[in-house]
Amino acid sequence: MFGEKAVALVKEEHRTPSEQLQPLNEDLIRQVLAEMGALCEANKTDIDIMRTDEGEHEKMLPSFLLRHSALEHNRRCTLAYLKARLDRIIRFRWDHGAVLPEEIQVNLQEHEKQWFSKYNKNLANYMTSLHGLDLTQNTVPPKSLKIQVRCLQEYGELETESGEIVMLTMNSEHYLPLSECEPLIRQGVLQHMGS
Amino acid sequence: MSFDSQQQDVDSVIPRDYFSIDSILAEQQKLSCVLRRSFFGLGYLDASNSGEHLVSGTKMDLPLWIVGSGLADKGFLTCELPKAYQEANRNILLADSSVVDLFKQAVHFYGTGLRLIKLPHPETPYLAVSLVKAFIGRFKKIMDSSQNSRNQDLSTLLAKLDTKERELFELSRESVQTLDKWERRESNIIGASTLVLHSRKRKRHQLT
């Protein structure tokens, strides 16, 4: 039956856990496009016959429409697959930050990498136009300007906005501005200590 | 109101659920069909057919996305509703929908059902009513268990819900967890991203 490869694409995306990104299945996409090419050719041939007379038109219409619905279906599945991947990447951006972990980056296809870089640029431009309001910050309602954090990695030096240099070593604890810490907490470098 | 009519126009060009994976999967449901016209040149679609064409009168299973694409509307084929949506099952649902294992009957029970009622089939009005009643009968249990059973094992209940109900269940459970967090005064604690959390979990597993 037509459309089975296209559905396989969709199912692959559906099955992927929310914190992962599979490599783009270019091979399967190529197979779907090949099926669409064949359907298109068959329909083009039929169109020429159908144009000749009313009888032929009626005769070929059922097959023609079935192939056409398969073309529409394949297109829908492929687009949904590609869009779901982009939506996933956007979620990672807002959840994690502009620099994605290695295991995610390695599975971005070349065009997706370029798209992501453009997305980041657009987001940065937009936030600048809002007088520097960082929309990706304050993911939870903040209670204070400064927070207590513990460092979970050997990170090294951190220069704060005020020019202070803080040394982030394993298990060191600090009392720092929320805005400086939030990106590092989300990336797993720091841990927010409760009050 | 003008709001509504604007959305309706947009929907006729691109349906709201065009990119929805659940919607695509729901339309995979196979229906038992009888062809009422001949489909020339497509004989290879039917495994049991040896000819070049699909002749009128052939019985075959076709996915819902083909049947609902206009072939049924134009009378090129007729179809039967899947078992889960036929009268016998509708009566079971009417009796007590809250105990039925919907997932077993149809993974995307409501998604497929909503698509089925658009087909030119005589039972669709009854099916439409049945879908609403089934949902109403099950809704209370879903909301109740997702909000009031903090630590119990709900996997047996969850296994009987279809995909839309599971989504609802998760939304409800999440909202209760958020409220709990707030009551514990933890709602201002910033957490690591899900990517980091899962990578930590993976590393822990690798060490053990």
DSSP summary: helix tally of chain A: 6
Give the C-alpha Rg of chain B: 23 Å
Strand order of the largest sheet of chain B: 2-1-3
Could you tell me the mean pLDDT of chain A?
93
User: Biggest interface in this structure?
Assistant: A-B, 57 and 40 residues
Structural class of chain B: mainly alpha
* Shape estimate of chain B: elongated
Determine Rg of chain A (CA atoms, Å). Answer: 26 Å
The stretches of 5 or more residues of chain A where confidence is low (pLDDT under 50) are: none
Low-confidence stretches of chain B: none
The SSE order of chain A reads HHHHHEEEEHE
Summarize, please.
By secondary structure, chain A is mainly alpha-helical.
Which SSEs are present, and which pair or pack?
The complex is a heterodimer of chains A (195) and B (208).
Chain A: H1 4-15, H2 26-52, H3 54-96, H4 102-105, H5 110-129, E1 146-151, E2 156-159, E3 165-168, E4 173-177, H6 178-186, E5 190-192
Antiparallel strand pairs in A: 1-4, 1-5, 2-3
Helix pairs in contact in A: 1-2, 1-3, 2-3, 3-5
Chain B: H1 2-13, H2 21-26, E1 30-35, E2 59-63, H3 64-71, E3 77-79, H4 87-96, H5 102-105, H6 109-116, H7 124-148, H8 155-158, H9 163-183, H10 194-207
Antiparallel strand pairs in B: 1-2, 1-3
Helix pairs in contact in B: 4-7, 6-7, 7-9
